[in-house]
């Protein structure tokens, strides 16, 4: 990046005034900012659920604790799926920038499949827990667990639906400015979900199995 | 990356024409981010499972690793930079971090304090938490 930029960097700097002299910001930047504020409010909501979970971690009511329930291997695979899908989502936004349909669709499909694999693993984990009587009604700890992890899972589901809708829009409308801005918002959303997951697997799954 | 003068928003590609942007360098940025994130994740899992480290320090270490990884995601995936058009986003992010810290740390402090003050014996405290 640096080498490519350095060549005509000075020309560009003269051509573009400082932010205040350049006039109103481009619509893409304004849209990105608005969506960024939404994402932060979403993260504040997650913070409240995290706080509830952290307070209730030991309130197991004699039921199973995290140490008995959590399977680190499946959590590691889920983490890998989300990280890889975040990467392919980044590659997709690059392909959109250079107007390459085939690469965009390919990256979108891989992102979708990885996100769906994450969801399948999570649902299987939930089903296994409910099958052994560790459902959300068992204890305050499990209620908080299902709320927190389930809320993240719902966000991933919404992201998958959004991605499918966006690919339909790309197929029908092509790379219009509006479609491009929606795709920008989608990639922001998807990366932010990954940040929430980093927080989640550390607090819930890794700290949960410490003695 | 840090000394570029043009404007970018989080997750945004360069506002400049694609020819100047160079997709290969974009791929490089995402790849570096992915590599760092994978290394930090692997370290988190190792730290949680190893018996080599001093046990009381493990949760602190995990917290540090998680915050580092969130920073990696913000910089390499969401492209939060110090550019002029990013000032608003960084300010909003700082405010968000403030609220998140207040909510999480405040809840934990108050609930721990309540538990300390409510019941004298540890057993009773557990009983109370079981409802």
Identify low-pLDDT runs of chain A.
1-11
Measured on Cα atoms, how large is the radius of gyration of chain B?
21 Å
Strand content of chain B: under 5%
Structural class of chain A: mainly alpha
Low-confidence stretches of chain B: 1-6, 14-20
How would you summarize this macromolecular structure in one to three sentences?
Chain A has 211 residues and is mostly helical. In chain A, 80% of the residues lie in helices and 0% in strands.
Structure description:
Chain A has 211 residues and is mainly alpha-helical. Chain A has a single domain (28-209), classed as Four Helix Bundle (Hemerythrin (Met), subunit A) (Up-down Bundle). Chain A has helices spanning 2-7, 9-15, 27-56, 66-69, 72-97, 101-131, 140-173, 177-206. In chain A, helix 3 (27-56) packs antiparallel against helix 7 (140-173). The model of chain A is unreliable at 1-11 (pLDDT under 50). With 131 residues, chain B is mainly alpha-helical. Chain B folds into two domains: 1-81; 87-131. Chain B contains five helices and no strands. Chain B has helices at 18-21, 23-49, 58-77, 87-118, 122-129. In chain B, helix 2 packs antiparallel against helix 3 (58-77).
List keywords for this structure.
heterodimer; A: 211 residues; mainly alpha; Four Helix Bundle (Hemerythrin (Met), subunit A); 8 helices; disordered N terminus; B: 131 residues; 2 domains; 5 helices; flat
Give the arrangement of secondary structure elements.
The complex is a heterodimer of chains A (211) and B (131).
Chain A: H1 2-7, H2 9-15, H3 27-56, H4 66-69, H5 72-97, H6 101-131, H7 140-173, H8 177-206
Chain B: H1 18-21, H2 23-49, H3 58-77, H4 87-118, H5 122-129
Helix pairs in contact in B: 2-3
């Amino acid at each position: 990046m640096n080498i490519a930029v350095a060549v005509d960097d000075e020309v560009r700097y003269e051509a573009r005034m400082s932010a205040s002299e350049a006039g109103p910001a481009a619509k893409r930047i304004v849209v990105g900012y608005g969506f960024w504020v939404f994402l932060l409010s979403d993260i504040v909501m997650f913070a409240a659920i995290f706080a509830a979970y952290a307070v209730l971690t030991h309130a197991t009511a004699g039921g199973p604790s995290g140490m008995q329930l959590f399977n680190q291997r499946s959590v590691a695979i889920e983490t890998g799926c989300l990280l890889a899908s975040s990467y392919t989502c980044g590659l997709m936004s690059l392909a959109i920038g250079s107007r390459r349909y085939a690469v965009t669709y390919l990256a979108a499909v891989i992102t979708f499949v990885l996100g769906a694999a994450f969801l399948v693993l999570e649902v299987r984990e939930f089903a296994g827990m409910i099958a052994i009587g560790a459902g959300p009604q068992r204890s305050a700890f499990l209620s908080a667990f299902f709320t927190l992890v389930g809320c993240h899972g719902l966000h991933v589901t919404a992201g998958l639906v959004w991605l499918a809708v966006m690919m339909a829009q790309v197929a029908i409308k092509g790379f219009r400015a509006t479609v491009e801005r929606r795709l920008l918002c989608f990639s922001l959303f998807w990366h932010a979900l990954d940040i929430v997951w980093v927080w989640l697997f550390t607090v819930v799954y890794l700290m949960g199995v410490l003695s | 990356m840090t000394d570029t003068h043009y404007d970018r928003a989080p997750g945004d590609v360069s506002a400049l024409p694609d020819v100047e942007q160079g997709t290969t360098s974009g791929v490089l940025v995402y790849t570096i981010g992915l590599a760092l994130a994978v290394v930090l994740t692997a370290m988190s899992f190792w730290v949680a499972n190893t018996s080599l480290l001093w046990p009381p320090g493990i949760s602190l270490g995990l917290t540090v690793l998680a915050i580092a990884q969130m920073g990696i995601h913000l910089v390499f995936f969401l492209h939060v930079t110090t550019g002029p058009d990013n000032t608003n986003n960084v300010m909003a992010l700082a405010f968000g971090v403030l609220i998140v810290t207040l909510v999480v740390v405040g809840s934990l402090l108050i609930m721990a304090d309540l538990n300390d003050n409510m019941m004298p014996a540890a057993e009773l405290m557990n009983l109370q938490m079981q409802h």
